Amino acid sequence: MDDRRLETLAVGHGEDPGETHRGDVVSPIHLASTFALPGLDPEMSLEDVDPAEGDFLYSRLNNPTRFALERRLAALEGGDHGFAFGSGTAAIATVAMASVEPGDHVVAFDDLYAGTRRMFETLFRDRLDVDVSFVDATDPDNVADAVRPETTLVWMETPTNPLIKLCDVAAIADIADDADARLGVDNTFLSPYFQNPLELGADVVAHSTTKYLNGHSDSVGGALVTDDDELAEELQFLQQVGLGNVLAPFDAYLVLRGTKTLASRMRDHEANALAIAEYLEDHDLVEAVHYPGLESHPQHELAREQTSGYGGILSFELAGEFDDAKRFLEALEEFALAVSVGGVESLVELPAGMTHEPIPKAEREAHGITDTLVRMSVGIEHPEDLVEDLERGFAAMRGQSVSH
Ligand SMILES: *Cc1c(COP(=O)(O)O)cnc(C)c1O
């Protein structure tokens, strides 16, 4: 295990010059789909083709650029095994496939990423006969109460999207352990810079590298990291053979490049998000702000214990109706109206009209997703420019002319 710190690992780990790229400071983009063998060796089996030794056979199995990224991501999360997929969704589906069979049961947070929730409902519950219980995991007792003898997977996200709720990973890891179930945590929102679920007791960590790990809104990808050798073998089978879902070399290069600045970006994202959260909290057109860095967040203490920072994503409720939120959002110039999070540019979205629009309104509202709940992914621009932009939005809500 490499005990250097995240900032150092993020810059170079995994890209060490090896057999195939002696002397390169950064990993080249290896586009080859196949690799010539030196000859035919009757003693050789597929198992002997070891990318760590510079041996590659076919790029779906292993590719040098993807392999560099997989080693990097494993090191950043403090795990032994990393896997890079074509999307975060593919990463989550793969670990779920590795963890359940028909008749099994999953316990999941009820405020999951909307796509993950749909995957569990439509693919696993409706088609694969895997029952799924969605619970309010802000209280670990609710997870303990939902666990059954046939529970094989507990799936968490913290903080969640869009209500920015936390769950106590260490407490839930104990519950999963007692139940002989696997605990997976989607760590997309905080990145390994602020939170390390494996250290807190999770068995596997998932990422949408589309977000902070790549960080520049120009690649879609996903990753899994684990230190469980048996699970790693199953993940490798599913990634390379069972499903054949791998991240392409060019995207692997982009994420390798993105991770180099992860620590600096995360610090800037957080400083800006905190400044904006404080500004919003004092505003008379804002009814509630959800950001774990605020003392008013009901789980601020848990955030302080479990994470080394609060991240760059927050949500807040505007006073008024859908049309007020619409006027606010459409007046913004620095914040692009777009789904997704984690890029250097600031984005804003209205869950009720965008990411969570497919959920029926009554169900949405019962869950706290009102028509004026706004989610923000705060970028690394100058915070005063961002606050001035929000003032433009509030002026539009009041029906004042908007200055540019
Ligand atoms: C974006 C996201 C996903 C899905 O990742 P894709 O790369 O879009 O497939 C999963 N979980 C969280 C928390 C996300 O933000």
Walk me through what this model shows.
By secondary structure, this protein is of the alpha/beta class. It folds into 2 domains: 6-259, 3-Layer(aba) Sandwich (Aspartate Aminotransferase, domain 2); 263-397, Alpha-Beta Complex (Aspartate Aminotransferase, domain 1), CATH 3.90.1150. 38% of the residues lie in helices and 14% in strands. The protein contains 15 helices and 12 strands. The strands form 2 sheets. It has a 7-stranded mixed sheet with strand order 1-7-6-5-4-2-3, with helices on both faces. Helix 4 (114-125) links the parallel strand 2 (105-109) and strand 3. Helix 1 packs antiparallel against helix 2 (64-77), helix 2 packs parallel to helix 10 (249-259) and helix 13 crosses helix 15. The chain is globular and about 80 Å long. The model has no long low-confidence stretch (mean pLDDT 95). Bound molecules: pyridoxal-5'-phosphate. Its cofactor is pyridoxal 5'-phosphate. It comes from Halobacterium litoreum.
Short description:
By secondary structure, this protein is an alpha/beta fold. It has helices at residues 6-12, 64-77, 88-99, 114-125, 140-146, 169-178, 191-194, 197-200, 229-242, 249-259, 262-281, 300-306, 322-331, 361-366, 383-397, and strands at 81-85, 105-109, 131-135, 151-157, 182-186, 204-208, 222-226, 286-290, 313-318, 336-337, 347-349, 373-377.
Question: Could you name the key traits of this structure?
Answer:
binds pyridoxal-5'-phosphate, 5-stranded mixed β-sheet, 12 strands, Aspartate Aminotransferase, domain 1, pyridoxal phosphate, 404 residues, 2 domains, 7-stranded mixed β-sheet, Aspartate Aminotransferase, domain 2, alpha/beta
